[in-house]
Write a structure and sequence with these properties.
Elements (H helix, E strand, L loop, with lengths): L2 H13 L14 H8 L44 E5 L11 E5 L5 E5 L5 E8 L5 E8 L13 E7 L7 E5 L9 E8 L5 E8 L8 E7 L5 E7 L18 E3 L5 E8 L2 E8 L11 E9 L7 E2 L5 E5 L5 E6 L5 E7 L5 E6 L6 E5 L12 E6 L2 E4 L14 E2 L1
Antiparallel strand pairs: 1-2, 1-24, 2-3, 4-5, 5-6, 6-7, 8-9, 9-10, 10-11, 12-13, 13-14, 14-15, 16-17, 17-18, 18-19, 20-21, 21-22, 22-23
């Protein structure tokens, strides 16, 4: 499945459920009525306490905790060794598993099935290349409501090379309220904090947007910020919950988030160690902004200095300074067509990127993923050897 196919399919599938992305207001008992009728309306959105941490019936293994949030040594031109990806091209028919794969060899390390009557739909990674948070939703999907069904959160720890390479446990982070979209999700570098951005899904909603930080260990809500009704965290049409628009910086307390205003994208910086609850008043914009249709999904590096995106007009992987907003260099000139940044190193000098197969005449039948560095694009064994045709979501 090409990236165009993914975007078109996701956009068509989401169109019936997401009329626009606007903040939220909720009556008392409409949740049960709305779900019974399967008609769009105002949604009830109290956060309910999640169950205690439950060990899921998957392969179990004891692994070491992340040490001080520091990344493990990287391989193959500086890319992380392991990834987690959604593995199902048609989640409407079969629940989505996740595959743990080896970036360098393309081999599958483990396959993790979702709990009964649910499907995985998203993931985000810590800096140690061993710790991930997965989002799951009820399955079978409702054709109209799958984007706004509650998401339940799970911690996945991997231990490649052992007899039992994956352990999945349910987090005590509360499920998302029915009627809200996951506009962003990010696991902190040390794996101790989980940030979630939530968007209402209809123009009738008048309440605020939310950015929340939870403790991974306890599920406790640590911080929350709200945005005004005019706010809009950016949601790209990727077909899965968004793990791109929120980024923790390496200091472990600063978040950067994409913000969509007047058909332009910008990044804003939020220091979670400072007091405050107003998403806009307590954050500051960077100098970078771009028209929403100017480039593919942008990615900010974890040092906070660089935004990287693929120009739609030229297919170039381009780097911009967050301090000046100016183009600083072209990392790779693909030539034409569609591309996407899947991962970037802290300094932005090494990327993992996707290229439309038309970039490589004679190889149109295969999805192409590779490492971008030193002006070159080097294809990886991923994804075909791992069994993932082209995942709707992936995390390193």
């Amino acid at each position: 499945m090409t990236m165009e196919d993914r975007v078109r399919s996701a956009t068509r599938f989401t169109a019936d459920a997401v009329t626009s992305v606007r903040p939220l207001v909720l009556p008392d008992d409409e949740l049960a009525k709305a779900r019974a009728r399967h008609r769009p309306r105002h949604w009830l959105a109290p956060l309910t306490a999640a169950a205690a941490v439950i060990a899921i019936a998957v392969t179990l293994v004891i692994v070491r905790d992340a040490r001080n949030g520091q990344p493990t040594p990287l391989t193959h031109a500086g890319v992380p060794r392991y990834y987690v990806a959604l593995n199902n091209p048609n989640v409407q028919k079969v629940p989505d598993q996740v595959v743990v794969g080896d970036t360098v060899t393309g081999k599958r390390v483990a396959t993790v099935s979702p709990p009964a009557h649910s499907s995985f739909i998203s993931m985000t990674a810590a800096a140690d290349d061993r710790t991930f948070v997965l989002g799951a939703t009820a399955w079978p999907f409702s054709a109209s409501f799958w984007p706004v069904e509650p998401r339940t959160w799970y911690l996945l720890r991997i231990a490649p090379g052992t007899d039992h390479p994956a352990r999945l446990t349910r987090l005590r982070v509360p499920p998302t309220p029915f009627g809200l979209l996951v506009a962003g999700m990010a696991l902190s570098p040390d794996g101790t904090k989980f940030a979630v951005g939530l968007e209402p899904n209809t123009t009738e909603n008048l309440g605020p947007e939310h950015l929340r930080i939870y403790s991974v260990a306890t599920g406790a809500l640590l911080r929350t910020w709200t945005g005004p009704p005019s706010a809009s965290l950016y949601i790209p049409p990727t077909g899965a919950d968004n793990d791109i628009t929120l980024t923790w910086l390496m200091d472990g307390h600063t978040l950067m988030f994409e913000y969509d205003t007047a058909a332009r994208l910008q990044y804003r910086v939020l220091d979670s160690s400072r007091p405050g609850h107003d998403l806009l008043a307590d954050s500051r914009p960077t100098a970078w902004s771009a028209p929403s249709d100017a480039c593919g999904i942008p990615v900010v590096t974890s040092d906070g200095k660089t935004v990287i995106c693929v120009a739609r007009a030229s297919g170039a992987f381009q780097e911009y300074s967050t301090a000046t907003g100016k183009l600083t260099r072209t990392l790779y000139q693909a030539g034409r067509g569609l591309g996407e940044v899947l991962w970037a190193s802290p300094a932005g000098d090494v990327l993992i990127g996707y290229l439309n197969p038309s970039f490589f005449p004679g190889d149109e039948s295969r999805s192409v993923v590779g490492v971008v560095t030193d002006g070159n694009f080097r294809k990886l064994s991923f994804p075909m050897a791992s069994g993932v045709a082209m995942p709707n979501a992936i995390a390193w």
